[in-house]
Structures are given as C-alpha cells and as structure tokens.
Amino acid sequence: MEITLSPLSPSFSKTFITSLYELKDGERIRTCLQCGTCSGVCPFGYIMKFPPGKMIGALRAEIFDQVIKADSVWMCISCNACAAFCPSNIPITSALMTRAKEEMLLAGNIPSELQAAMENTQRYGNPLGESPRKRADWTAGIQPEVNILSKTRQPVEVLWFVGDYASFHSRMQPATKALAKILNALGVKFGILGTEEFSDGDSQRLAGERGLFEMVAHKNGQLFKKYKFNEIITTDPHAFNAIKNEYPALGIKYPVRHYTQFLFERLEQLKPLMKKEIKARVAYHDPCYLGRVNGVFDEPRALLTAIPGVELVELSHQRMNSLCCGGGGGGMWLDGFQWEKAHTRLSEWRVREALTVNADILAVACPYEPPRFEDAAKNVDAGGQLKVREIAELIAESMEG
Amino acid sequence: MKIAVPVKFVPDLVEELTIDPGGTALDTSWLRLIINEFDDHAVEQAILLKERVGGQVIVAMAEAEGADDFLFASAAKGADQLIRLTGDFSSSNNHALARALADLLKELKPDLILTGVQAHNDLDGSIGPLLAEYLGLPYVGYVAGLTAAADMVTVRKEYAGGLIAEMEVKLPAVLGIQAAEQPPRYVAYSKIRQVMSTAKIEERAVASLDLSGGITISRMFQPEVTERATMMGGSPEEVADKVIEIFKELGTL
Ligand code: SF4
Ligand code: SF4
C-alpha cells in the first residue's frame, strides 16, 4: 500500500524526540551507543528501511520524517526483543516504536487491515468485528454452568478475563472451554464478564492507538469496579500485560495473573487428575508478552512436564530469546501488509524450528497462536505432522483419562 | 465550494436480523445501526474534494443511536458543519427522509450534494434521485471520482462490464457516490474525543414526515428453503462426504 503523508514541520524530529523523553525511561534514548544490537535481533530488522538503531540515528540527524515516510515501522510486531537486548536499556518497543506508530496513525497513514481492526474495536469492543452479544456463546453446554457476573452478581474468587480471541475465534473456543473444565475440576469459584467484557486493548495500544486503548481500559475498569473478586486471571498474555503494567497508570489496579501461573500454583491438585498419557515430544513457544516482557518462563513448562507422557523439548529460540509468532503489536492485523513486504511469516519460521527438533506438538499459551501456527504449518513442508495445542487443551485432554 | 452530504444509518448485519411479530418489519429491539457504507464513501469524497479545491463540508443525518458519534468522527476527518434532524423517524421511508432533507438543503444552498448511491435498506428507491427530484437538480449515480471547476464537476461513472464514462454536470447537482477515490480514512480515537469537546451539532426539528410515494410492506420474511435447495448439516467432514456423493450422482466427478 502507498502511504500518503501530511506535511511535517521541519522541527518534527525535535518534537518527536521530546515526546519520547516524557515517556517512562524515555530519556535513556540519549544513551544509545548505535551498536546495532536492536536491529540485529529484530526479526524483521533485515527488511526495515529504518530498523530501531537507524531510527535513533535518524532522530539525531533530524531527518525523522524520512522514517515516517518509509512506513517500515508497520513491520514492527512489538515483540520487545530489541529492548530486551539493548545494552543501554532503552525502552525501544514501548517508547520509540509505539510512538512512531502513533505518529503514523495520527496522520491517518494506517494499513487498511489494521484500520478495520481499530474500527471494529471502537464499534464492537473487539478487533474481530464480532457481535458483542455473542461474546459468551462459547459457554454453551459447559457444566457446571459458567458464572456470568452480570447475570448472577455473585462474589467470586477469580475473575477470568477471557479476552477477544479466546471468546470469539473458532479455533480458540475449544481451548477456552478446556480451561473452563479445568477450573471447574479444581473447584475454583470463578466468573466471567460475558457480553460486557471489552477488548483489553493492549495490541491496539502497541499499534499506536493510545486513545482507543484508554477508552476500552476505562470501560473494563468500570466493570471491575462493579463486581466482587479477589484476583483476575487471563487467557491472553496481552490482557495480562495490559492489566498488570498499563491499567494501573489509569487508576485501574487489580492483582492479575496469567492462567498458567494460576494453574501452576495448583499443580499438586492438578497432577492426580491428569491420568491419560499424551506420549509426545512437545515444544513450547514462549509468547513475547508472557515470557520476555513479564518473565513467566517456568510455569508453562512445569505444567507441560507434569502431563504424563510429555517429553518437553526446547526450540532454538526460547525464553528471553523467543521468536515472536508475528501477531503482536498489531501484527495480527497486518498479515497482508507484512507479507507484501517480507514474503515470509514469522509463524512459519517458528513451525520450521519445531520440526527441526522433531516435535510432535507445538504447545502455546497465547490465543493468537493456535490459528497462526496452524495456518503456518499448512505452508511449511512436512508441517502437517505438527499439532498445535494450547496448554489448557493438553491438560484437559490428559484429564479425560 | 459548499458540499452537503446527507447520510443515513442502516441495520448492522453483524447482528442477526429478526422479523417483528407483526411480520411486516424488522424487530428493532436488538437492532444495531451502522453508517451506510456508500454514505461513508460520500463523506470521504467530500473531504477529499475540500482538501483539493477548498470549501466547506456539511454532514447531515436523522437522529439515531450512534448518530452523534458518526457526526463527530466526520468532523475529526474534516467536516465543518454537523446537522442532526430530530423528529419521529420510526415509520419513515426514503421518500419522507428525502423530503425532510430537501427542505434543509433548500436552506443551505450547497453547490454540490454527495450521497451514497444506495443502501441495503432502500425499499422505496435510493435517496439521491429522490433528493434531486424534490430539489429540481440534475442527478448522476454510481460515481467513483470527480474533479471540480467553478460551476461544474466532471464525474466518472461506472457501468457494468468495466466501462467508465466521464461526464460534465452543471452545479448545483446531486451525485450518488459508489466509491470515494480512496477508502474512508481512519481517525485516531483521541482526535474524535477532542472534536467531541469542541464541535457542535446543530439540531433541525422535522415537524411532520410526508410518507407519500413510499411502499407498503405486506410481508417480510427470512429467505425460505426452496425445493431445489438441499440444506446439509453435520461436521465439515460429513458435509464434504455428502457433497462428493452429490457430485458423483450428477456425473460431475
Ligand atoms: S541496541 Fe540500544 S544502544 Fe544499541 S543501537 Fe539499539 S537502541 Fe542503541
Ligand atoms: S519490538 Fe520486535 S519487531 Fe519491533 S523493532 Fe523491536 S525487535 Fe523489531
């Protein structure tokens, strides 16, 4: 797609860099060594006309309008790899990349797929453009019935923030049902927001739509206030990240954990329930916003190794060095745009890595991933022999024995 | 150039449509409304034109849930004047709506009126030609792109089979927009929020609606299964097996 640009003032580089200084740790950008680590570790760095290190160079040379014109910032999937390995601890992803996307978006320069996701979020409260009335449809048939707080208004131990893809996506719904079954089997008193729930907004934020993020965050915050619960658990690492790291600044403060952390705490209770053997070599993909950004590496692995029969194998990119599935920071809604530029998909690289270590199953813990990796497996030689499973699906399957 | 864009909302097909118990109308209790897609393009085209030749864009619509949000979003994109018609539009039709809009447009005296060429709920004809008739102005529909001169526009009209005609239209005129020259733009939510606190929506009361010329609905119903159609249920695998069986029976496999 051609990006058209509204005229930028010559002082654009200056105003842009000043706006970075106002962000958390933004001043650190002054300490950039121009070492290029960020650009090297970036999965799409080789394709960006201005990878992160060069962006900072352009800022210093006061030619940042060229960066915006080049539109390669839409290749960034906010995976945080650059920031994690920057020797100067510069918040590259959260400050530089996110602000640059915001600038693109304010100028109206946004790829059409991403625009649709944003408009859907504004209108329906979810980027998929599904009817909000259908948000809790996945609960049909689950026994005991899932407690929808707007209907029952009962206090619960745990508020399960189900999230967009886990609620609506047909590939994710079986995994969502699996988690409901596990929670029921553990006797957890949990409830969901049902049709009232809004998108967590984190991926929209990382794709530059700060205003939209704040809008949905406040709507969720109002709902949290309405009901009684001790803590929040999420299916989605992005929701976990938003509620943990971003909502508090908006005055929305609640204890939150990813479901893998919550289940890990109950592992001893869970173990005797998992009777059926799943004899398979299982490779685990660390989701960026569970692992690299929030440091949750061990709990998902502990859950997997507790499943009888499972042999855990590590991918070549793992833990801090994990490779993004390509869905973060708006990447979920930039597939066409990024394919046009790169003619490759990160999810396909990842599937090849799993095949290289002879994995039978690629285990995941983020709702973007089952559809992404399953689609990718169809495009990779011998990909058909690889199964993609949510951790919750594997646990529930083992409990059926 | 003063450009007026009358727009309307239509039922959002994201929700399943149900017929009300009377059997002649949609059940409105669950109805969600959305801007008519072609009207969205008309607004975009008007703003593109304003950016090229200068002038003023007026967006007008009948009141409805979500109408203000749409009007503010239009202002954030570049519309200058926002008008909401108030009144009882519950039993309205396009004839009545076009008459109400025509009264407003006679007052506003725009050089150019752009509106969506059609809408999926146009039961009694589309708004554009009705407006042109009531205003005594020329009308060209299925327009996808135009250039403007002082007292005339050159429009590109699409015909079936990939034919495109260019024609000159004397102003003032009404154009039915098929597609803007570029897809409707995105405005960041923060910009819409800003506009909400600064822009004003003018209200125009519509005293009574003249429904004459419209149609009477005798029955509204969901598509019915005809004898020739075979509905197949089951899992994707089962359906695939059945389809293959049918193809074999028909001799196409
Ligand atoms: S890794 Fe850090 S210090 Fe090195 S070029 Fe990138 S931003 Fe600068
Ligand atoms: S966040 Fe990931 S994709 Fe974006 S610039 Fe950094 S390494 Fe590259």
Task: Describe what you observe in this structure.
The complex is a heterodimer of chains A (401) and B (253). Chain A is α/β, with parallel strands linked by helices and 401 residues long. Chain A has three domains: 12-106, no CATH class; 126-265, Rossmann fold, CATH 3.40.50; 273-399, 3-Layer(aba) Sandwich (Rossmann fold). Chain A is built from 20 helices and nine strands. Chain A has helices at residues 12-21, 37-41, 52-60, 64-70, 81-85, 92-106, 112-124, 149-152, 164-168, 173-185, 202-206, 210-226, 237-246, 259-265, 267-270, 298-306, 335-342, 346-356, 369-379, 391-399, and strands at 147-148, 156-161, 190-192, 229-234, 256-258, 280-284, 310-313, 361-364, 387-390. A five-stranded parallel sheet of chain A has the order 1-3-2-4-5. Chain A has a four-stranded parallel sheet with strand order 7-6-8-9, with helices on both faces. In chain A, strand 4 (229-234), helix 13 and strand 5 (256-258) form a beta-alpha-beta unit. In chain A, helix 14 (259-265) crosses helix 16 (298-306) and helix 18 packs across helix 19. Chain A is globular and about 65 Å long. The N and C termini of chain A lie far apart (52 Å). Chain B has 253 residues and is of the alpha/beta class. Chain B has a single domain (2-205), classed as 3-Layer(aba) Sandwich (Rossmann fold), CATH 3.40.50. Chain B contains six helices and eleven strands. Chain B has helices at 37-53, 67-77, 94-108, 127-135, 189-198, 236-250, and strands at residues 2-6, 9-11, 33-35, 56-62, 81-86, 112-116, 139-148, 152-158, 164-170, 173-177, 201-205. In chain B, the strands form two sheets. Chain B has a nine-stranded mixed sheet, with helices on both faces. In chain B, strands 2-3 form a two-stranded antiparallel ribbon. The site of one iron/sulfur cluster (SF4) has 15 residues of chain A, from helix 2 and helix 3.
